[in-house]
Write a structure and sequence with these properties.
The protein has about 140 residues and is of the alpha+beta class. It has 4 helices and 6 strands. About 25% of the residues lie in helices and about 25% in strands.
Length: about 140
C-alpha cells in the first residue's frame, strides 16, 4: 500500500462527472486531471484487482460504462469510490490518483497490452461471475 509521499500535492477540488464518467481532480500544484471511471476501476488498488502479489492481478473487462455511486474520504490521504458494479474496496491515495491522471496514457497502453495478451476485448464481460469456484464471495 503506497503511502502519501511528501511531494504529492493535496487535491483542492474533486468533482464526479456522472454523464461523462470522469473524476475531475485539481491539485494544489495547479495540475488538473480528468480521470475516466473506467481507468480507475480497471486499476483499482484493491486486492480484488491487484491480487496479493505479482502475476495475481485480475484483469478487469467490461468496465467502460462503470459509474461511481459515491466517494468516501479516507483519512487525509485518499478516497474510496463506490463503483456501481459493486466494487468498493479500492482506496485511491492522492499519490495514486496523481499518477493515474498524469500518466493516463501509460496506464491505458498497459491495459491494452494486458487485454491483448489475454486475448480479451475491453468490453468482454468478466469471466466466471456466475459459478466461480475460487472462493471469492460477491456481496
Amino acid at each position: 500500500m503506497a503511502g502519501l509521499t511528501p511531494t504529492t500535492p493535496q487535491p483542492t477540488e474533486i468533482t464526479v462527472h456522472q454523464q461523462s464518467r470522469l473524476l475531475e481532480i485539481a491539485f494544489a500544484d495547479g495540475e488538473r486531471f480528468s480521470i475516466p471511471f473506467e481507468l480507475m476501476r480497471v486499476f483499482s488498488p484493491s486486492a480484488e484487482v491487484m491480487g496479493h502479489g505479482p502475476g495475481q492481478e485480475t484483469l478487469q473487462t467490461g468496465k467502460r460504462e462503470v459509474g461511481i455511486a459515491a466517494l468516501e474520504p479516507v483519512g487525509h490521504y485518499g478516497i474510496r469510490p463506490q463503483f456501481d458494479d459493486g466494487h468498493e474496496s479500492g482506496i485511491f491515495s492522492w499519490d495514486y490518483l496523481y499518477q493515474l491522471g498524469s500518466r493516463a496514457a501509460e496506464f491505458w497502453a498497459d491495459y491494452e497490452a494486458k487485454l491483448a495478451a489475454a486475448g480479451l476485448g475491453r468490453d468482454d464481460p468478466m469471466p466466471g461471475k456466475a459459478g466461480s469456484a475460487c472462493g471469492h464471495h460477491h456481496h
